[in-house]
Design brief:
By secondary structure, the protein is an alpha/beta fold. It folds into two domains: 129 residues, Alpha-Beta Complex (Aspartate Aminotransferase, domain 1); 224 residues, 3-Layer(aba) Sandwich (Aspartate Aminotransferase, domain 2), CATH 3.40.640. The protein contains twelve helices and 15 strands. A seven-stranded mixed sheet has the order 2-10-9-8-7-3-4, with helices on both faces. Strands 11-12-15-14 form a four-stranded antiparallel sheet, covered by helices on one side. The chain has a two-stranded parallel ribbon with strand order 1-13. It is globular and about 60 Å long. The N and C termini lie far apart (62 Å). 47% of the residues are buried. Bound molecules: pyridoxal-5'-phosphate.
Length: 368
Amino acid sequence: MTAKLPTPKPGVLDIQAYVPGEHSLASGVKPIKLSSNETPLGPSPKAKAAYLEVADELELYPDGGATPLRKAIASAYGLNADRIVCGAGSDDLLSLLARAYLGPGDEGLYTTHGFLVYPIAIQACGATPVVAQEINYTADVDALLAKVTPRTKVVFLANPNNPTGTYVPFQEVRRLREKLPSDVLLVLDAAYGEYVRRNDYEMGLELVATTENTVMTRTFSKIHGLASLRLGWCYCPAAVADVLNRIRGPFNVSGPSIAAGVAAIEDRAHVERSVEHNDRWLTWLLAELPKLGLEVTPSVGNFLLIHFAKGDKKKGAAAADEFLKSRGIILRRVAAYGLPDSLRMTVGTESDNRAVVSALGDFLSQAM
Ligand SMILES: *Cc1c(COP(=O)(O)O)cnc(C)c1O
């Protein structure tokens, strides 16, 4: 008889582990890494200085409530600090929200090309992931509503979405909230919200302020350039903040992260420079890539989706990826997102962006 071994709860072994963007090349050459939507401008120098300053206090536990950081965020955005919860990256908060509101028999809803952390968070709780179809790579409110059942407990919507770069206008998000049952938690993941310059876009603050069932998550990993520190925050109804504070790790944000986060949020000029850099080069890429004959999905984030010939051995996404790597450039394959014929490119420095366009031009001409 074989001994019984520890067994994870139902659902866990159905999870496809998250595969991060690649970061090194077989050749060992330092790559142009445009695979994880990190900022080409790096963090605010003030954030780095604040981080280094804390190096003398590493033996001390941090403030368990990340109080200085919640206060800095509250004052930057005019929010109530009691309703802000910080986490080790927004991934931490997405998992906590799932753990608090989803269990076996419940359904968590997201869209076809939605961020892959959502199904992982949903399944890790033993709940069932349900996918609503997108239209033109964009989340569709009616399709989401059509998938709602009495078992639906949480809807995850990245706005703008990764990896598609598309967004849902605020009026539509508001309509989604109005039509969803009141006991369904709507999680608006605005990881790229700072980059969006559209009049009809809103990160979700107003809905969180005016409803009792909407949460907005944000991150320091993207525009603030602190991905390595693992730092995120969410703005919640008071009851949801209370729930998260009960189940989160008592020191889920490190002291260096709190210090760097405060400095980052206060450096508005650095954020503004990052938005301007992105705006300029995203616009450039969205114009240059189609000139090569490549289709791109209009993005409002700091990345864009490039489409290649479907299933084509010579001109397809896999061949393009190999060719780019031979030129020292790493983009992101997104087959796991149901996009086998596309690559996601993060907006880089001027020279990175020019290198990609030039390499893709060469790729397409040699593949003729
Ligand atoms: C990058 C990203 C995040 C941020 O994750 P962190 O854990 O904060 O680094 C969240 N949501 C989406 C859609 C993302 O692409």
